[in-house]
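hey can u check if this looks right to u? its 163 residues, i copy pasted from the old doc so theres a chance i mangled smth
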Amino acid sequence: MEKQIEIRRAEEKDIKKVMDLLSQVLEIHAKIRPDVFVSGTTKYTDAELLQMFEDDQNPVYVAVVGYAFCKLRQQPFSNNMVQFTSLFIDDLCVDTTIRGKHIGQKLFEHVKKEAVRLGCYEVTLNVWEGNDSAKAFYEKMGLKPKETQMEYIIKDQGDRYGG
């Protein structure tokens, strides 16, 4: 019988594990885009995490081996479109040592239920080009491209860092 995974709002006691998972995500992104992400860093400090964990507008959900950082957003940003609330997944991670055991799916299902509870129209997220495993996972969860953000890099990395 499959072990039940508890998914709940993050608390102060979760900071150490969440920091470890944030490091795992950062290293994936730093390998894909070293011109954007700095290896060996994390997205948030312990103090920032604690503040986020207490913020109802940016709920963070955790499982023992994963998390989902979310943000409630009022959409869209122009008055020629229908107004609605979106639950944006800013970050979703499952520990690399336990991937493939449907924990990411359970986290995503939990986020969808929370979106319904919060009266949201949709759940959205961004995925970096080159992060093919994440993209495949999200497609398996039923997500489809909504819009594509494109970039044109003005300066090469050497110019950016003064070299």
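The chain has a mean pLDDT of 93.
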